[in-house]
Amino acid sequence: MAQPQSDALVVFGVTGDLAFKQIFPALQAMVRHGHLSVPVLGVARSEYNLEQLRARARQSVEQHGKFEPDAFRKLCGLLRFVGGDYEDPTTYERLKETLAGCQRPLYYLAIPPSLFTTVVEGIARVGAATNARVVVEKPFGRDLASAQVLNVTLHQFFPESAIFRIDHYLGKEPVQNLLYYRFANSFLEPIWNRNYVERVQITMAERFGVQGRGRFYDEAGAIRDVVQNHLLEVASLLAMEAPSARGDEAVRDEKTQAFRSMLPLEPSDVVRGQFRGYRKEEGVAPDSDMETFAAVRLRIDSWRWAGVPFYIRAGKCLPVTATEVLVELKRPPVALFPDCAAAPPNRFRFRLSPHVVLSLGARAKLPGERMRGEDVELIACHDQKDEMGPYERLLGDAMRGDQMLFARQDSVEEAWRVVEPVLGNATPLHQYDSGTWGPAEADRLLDNGGWFNPEQDWACG
User: Fold this and answer.
1) Exposed/middle/buried for residue 345 (C-beta within 10 Å: 0-12, 13-18, 19+)
2) In terms of Cα–Cα distance, which of 296, 246, 258, 223 is closest to 410?
3) pLDDT for 166-181, tens place per residue?
């Protein structure tokens, strides 16, 4: 059933870094595509006024988007500003006055999680939470207990159907393509199980470091920052069963069931690393033991995947910037041709960034009299020129009430359950040099073979 459209968008933290880098460019794109025509209210503590907000919005789209005069002019006509301290009740009274006539606002909390309770209580106190929706940014807590507390707080004022937990990674076209590719094609299903799959590798490599975000990163680390959310979400898309019905909740039900099948990580399943020089970054403690690299061995205790290890790896200051999934198939039961014994097994590769590439690796005979072969890849590439940005897509979905690409409470708590045993200093920290694939200790996680390292420029051409 179609949901009513939100009739206003309220952005708390409108002068912050997230709004500057992501939200303003997304709003201009929404206007350009005809997906935004309601008032956009910015709320912030700073002493901004409306003209200053418009100037910041222009600077934002020029630096992080593509400035389009007509669309930006229309966006400026939609902008409103409410300044004030989040702990001051009069801020929310002014907000309600500015919202006059709007019955179904969408609140975007682009603010630190420590302020969520203060803001939602302020909204509710003036009666502005009725029929409203709320968007909260990851991280959804720091562990299972804090995630549960956050959910209790939100549910005091908003039903689950009105809560949109935004993880921009779920709005990326390549990530959605995993779901589509799996269930739009019939050839995968007969082999997509423990009978044919040997193991799965998911790598999220970043060539850069913390990029001036040392203070934030030193409170999060690789496991909290990307493993618990982005990469476990990718694992759930690979491991989930086909939805039993059409619709958003059917998809989210199966994803949650995949999370429930994931066994909690044990210290022996995890290797943490930190690149040399991290402790000299601004905002980082000089004796920090926070990981900038994490490799984990995930077990999924389901009928389909029991016994198939899922290896997940994420790190900063690695040799390339790329995110890739490798699904390695089992070898034929008998090696009929001697040269196949040392050859890599058949495999599917899904490149999620920086390019969108799908491939099937196989073995083919070389021309000539001898029965000798070579490794070949059948590659399909996607042109991303018209790709919608993740924040544009997710903001539009939230305003329409479409929750499929947002994290549900139960799946968030299940993901925290998986990583909970290895948070903090549960495992040793190993140093590694920038430009390498992390600490050598990560190799011990793999039962046989080794990590598959993505290339920087693997693409069509």
Assistant:
1) middle
2) 258
3) 887 777 777 888 888 8
CB 80 within 8 A of CB 50: yes
- Tell me the residue type at 112: P
Residues of the chain with pLDDT under 50: none
From the CA atom positions of the chain, what is the Rg in Å?
24
Q: Is the dihedral of CA 181, 184, 188, 190 positive or negative?
A: positive
- When the pLDDT of each residue in the chain is averaged and rounded to a whole number, the result is 89
DSSP reduced 3-state for 345: coil
What does pTM read for this prediction? 0.89
Is the sign of the CA dihedral 59, 61, 65, 69 positive or negative?
negative
Map tokens 């999060």 to a residue: 220
pLDDT digits (tens, 9 = 90+) for 233-272: 999 999 999 988 877 788 889 999 999 999 999 999 999 9
Task: Single out the catalytic residue among 155, 168, 230, 430.
Answer: 230
Instruction: Check if 355 is active-site.
Output: no
Helices and strands (DSSP H and E) totals, the chain: 13, 15
Say how far apart CA 408 and CA 405 lie, in whole Å: 9
Contacts of range 115-120, beta carbons closer than 8 Å, 24 or more positions apart: 115/12, 115/86, 116/150, 116/153, 116/154, 117/153, 118/86, 118/87, 119/12, 119/86, 120/153, 120/154, 120/156, 120/157, 120/158
What is the distance between the alpha carbons of residues 404 and 252, in angstroms, rounded to a whole number?
7
Reported as a single tens digit per residue, the pLDDT across 140-166 is 888 899 889 989 989 999 999 999 998
